[in-house]
Specification:
- The chain has about 600 residues and is α+β, with helices and mostly antiparallel strands.
- The protein is built from 16 helices and 13 strands.
- The protein has four domains: about 140 residues, no CATH class; about 140 residues, no CATH class; about 100 residues, Helix Hairpins, CATH 1.10.287.130; about 170 residues, Heat Shock Protein 90, CATH 3.30.565.10.
- The chain is rod-shaped and about 170 Å long.
- The two termini are about 55 Å apart.
Amino acid sequence: MLASSLLVVVCAIAATAWLAVRTTTNAARDQQGQVLADDTMIYRTLMAYAASHSDWRDAEPVVRDLARRTGRHITVTPQDTREPVVSGSVRSTLTPGRAFAALDPLHTDPLLSQRAEGGGIDPAALGPYALGTSDRQRLDRAADAVATCLTGADVPFERAVTPSGRPLISLLHDVLLKEQIEGAEQQKYRAKRAEDCGLPVLDTPTAGEGDALTALNDVVNACLRRQKLPAVHLGLDFTPATAAQGTLTHAARNCVDVGRREQLAPYVAPSALLYVSDDSGSEAAPFDLSPANTLRILVVTAVVLLLAAFVTVVTGIHLVRPLRALTRAAQDHDEPQPPVPVARHDEIGRLTKAFNELSEHRARTERQRKVMVSDIAHELRTPLSTIRSALEATQDGVIEADQHLTASLLEEVLLLQHVIDDLQDLAAADAGTLRLYSEPVLADAVLRHVASAHRAAAESAGVTLVVHDPGELDLWADPLRLRQVVGNLVSNAVRHTPPGGRVTLQAREEDATVVVEVTDTGSGIAEEDLPLVFDRFWRAEKSRNRKTGGSGLGLSIARRLTEAHGGVLSAAGAPGRGATFTIRLPRCERQLTQDVNDHDTR
């Protein structure tokens, strides 16, 4: 229970914490990403405005719309002063803190504006290169004609529009054509097709673009002359217009950038600083779980707790159910209960198994007690009834008190005395007060004495007693008790051996012990009855016939007396094959040595 409870608690806490952290982390990451995306969008929108306007006077509506959509406070100030040029906020106007970025179309931040050209000039800063409506329409019609021609000539191309609105057609590589025509031949073929379709017309500057390029070339070439560099002629892409001029060097590229900035400066808004913050003045938006994320965390926590509660209840029921079954079985004293099912192998399973064994032992003991009381009553009632009947008959003068009557009554009294002595021996053995007077004993003498004592009863039953001479085999035992043990075994064997059978007594030495065996050719013992033959008042035959049943105490007394000698008594046999009772006792030498040592110790 402790391990299960700890496991449930640990798993529930760990799962809840992991899911909460994961959900919170994802929510924070999403919100931070959204904040960054909003700030980048603000920067690019205002940069586009600065590139297309010469001042910030009309930027107020744009800034307020951005503040409304993003929930951010936006302020634009000149670089040389902190006075806001334009400001927008959802709730209030705040003093800007640290600048988020500089708004300068001629010097863009490459991390925030991926469209910036070489030199960091925003492509939206067109200045004198902005096309008028008539020029844009004319170029669109020319681009349509070129595209139609190239399509008819099976020349692949790609069409786009520059920030100034000029259509742009770029030829693509044809895979099949590339396999047939290689190198310069391919270039000539492509150029010829493009020239036939009028593609160079689209690269021709308009009047306004031509004037602007002329002014730019003058400024650039003046810069190059000061550095003693060759003059260049720039095209609409601000690179050398002819291949003979090659690519621009680093110094020439600087001159082009400087010239372009001088040319575009009157057309773009002055450089300014952009401040973006929340309404509390923090530059980064505060982390605040959205209702959806809050609900997700609450749902996950509730599911985990419900799962933990379910597992706890199931585990508790699983643990308590067998305990309740054991309690019911233990409380019902009147009716016999079937064994409690053992469905597990833990402590409760072992307890259930032990309880079943205890209940079985208790039931068996109770049955034996009832049988023992009944047997004792029967064993005592028969001779007492005989004695009472004879005495009443004598008192009434029905029979005469002669020698024969006296002998009969004496026999019944001796029988009563035998039963009482047997019970007293068992009680003394159980209490540990049975006294033995051990001495060296010859096994052969014990066997022959017992055979002589039971020979008359054996002959009366038609059974032959056979004793095998063990030779000079001695052991350490109480001779009277040992004869009692062997006598009980012989008496039991004679009772269960039919006429014409045989009972054999023999002894031998085996591993420093003396083995005494009593073997009969009687009815034998069933395998399931072997563990019960030494129980008190147990009989293989349940009849009350003394001739076959006996008192039921002889084998129990034999085992307890054998154990008191430090030996072992066992039984073996099979139905119809007779039975063998084996006594194992220590040899005389070992007992003498032990007795001497015990005497020296005392």
